[in-house]
Amino acid sequence: MKRGTLFTYIASAVVGLGLFAGAASAQTVVTLGGYGELFADQYKKAVVDAFNASQTEVKVEYYAIGGSAQILGTLRAQKAAPQVDAVIMDIGVAKAGTDEGLFDKVDESVSKHVADLYPQARLDGVAGVGFTLDNVVLLYDKEKVTPAPDTWEALWGKGLERKVAIPAPPEILGMSLTVIAEKMAGGGDFVTSTQKAITKLGLLSGNVLTFEPKPDPYTPIMSKQALLSVGWNARAQYFSAQPGSNLGAVLPKEGSVFQVNSLNLVKGAKNTEAAKKFIDYALGPEAQAAFAKAMFYAPANSKVELPDEVASRTAAKSMDRMLPMNPLEAAKVRDRILQEWRRGVISR
C-alpha cells in the first residue's frame, strides 16, 4: 500500500471510530423498574431486548425491584430525585402513585396505541395504562384430577378434605374468588354486599388445606400436597408447560376476574422522552404478541391477533366471561371483606 493511501486509510478509520463513539455516547439509557424473578426474565427477553435491538437511540435497562408495594415504596423514597424513568406495577397500586403525584399521564400523545387498549386497561384516576391482562384460574393436579374440571364448583367437591389451597384476602386472588363466589351464589354488586359469597365460601372450609399457600398457590399442587387451588393464568400456564409438570389450569365456565399490570411514566425522571418511546413500543401489537407467546398474558391492545395455540391459553378470546372487579372499588371494601372472611370462612 502506498504511503499516502495508508495515511488516508488511517485517517478515515479514526474519523469512523469517532463517529461511532459519538453515536454510542448519544444513546439515552432508560431505567425501567418492575417485578422480579420470572416476570423480569421473560419480559426482558420478549420485549426489552427486542426494543433495544430495533433501534439505536434508546437503550432500556430493566431493574427488578419486586412486587407492586416495593416498587411504590422505591418511588416514594426517590420522589425528590427519581432514579427510574418508568415502572411496571398493578394498576390498583398505580392509583395510589397517581394520587401522590408520582406519575405523568400516559395518553394518545405518548402512544397512538392507547386508543386501541381494552377498557379494562384504562382506569379513571390512574396516570398509567394497562399493558397486560392476567386472570384468575382454577389450578388442578392434571395427573390425579380427571377429567379436567370446568367449573369453580369443583372446589366444593366431595373427597377433597384438606386437598384445596385457597389464598384468602387481602390477597387479590382471595378478593377475586369472593367476587366469583358472589356471582355463583346469585348475588349482586360486591361493593354493596358479599354475604352470599361468604356463606358459600364458608361451606368450602372443610376442604381447605391452607388459606395462605406458601410460597405461592402453585407449589402445593406441584409438590402433591393439594389437588386444587386458585392462581394466576400467566404463571400457571408457564409452569404447566415445563417438562414433567403435573400442574393444570383452566378458566371455568362461570367466568373469571382480570388483574391488570400497568406501565407508568415517573414524574421528574431524567429521560422521560426516551421512556415514552419504549412505552409506545410496549403497547404496540408486536411487543404485546411477543409477551403473550412468552408468558401467556392476554394483550391489553385490542388489535393484537394471537395464534390459536397461544390465544387458547389466555383470556384473549374470553373477554365476555370476565366479571367486573374494578380494583379501585375493591380497595375500598377490602377491609370489610377481610373481616367477613375471618369470621365466616377461615374460622369455621
UniProtKB/TrEMBL annotation:
<dbReference type="InterPro" id="IPR006059">
    <property type="entry name" value="SBP"/>
</dbReference>
<protein>
    <submittedName>
        <fullName>Putative spermidine/putrescine transport system substrate-binding protein</fullName>
    </submittedName>
</protein>
<dbReference type="Pfam" id="PF13416">
    <property type="entry name" value="SBP_bac_8"/>
</dbReference>
<dbReference type="GO" id="GO:0030288">
    <property type="term" value="C:outer membrane-bounded periplasmic space"/>
</dbReference>
<dbReference type="GO" id="GO:0030975">
    <property type="term" value="F:thiamine binding"/>
</dbReference>
<keyword id="KW-0574">Periplasm</keyword>
<dbReference type="GO" id="GO:0030976">
    <property type="term" value="F:thiamine pyrophosphate binding"/>
</dbReference>
<feature type="signal peptide">
    <location>
        <begin position="1"/>
        <end position="26"/>
    </location>
</feature>
<dbReference type="GO" id="GO:0015888">
    <property type="term" value="P:thiamine transport"/>
</dbReference>
<keyword id="KW-0732">Signal</keyword>
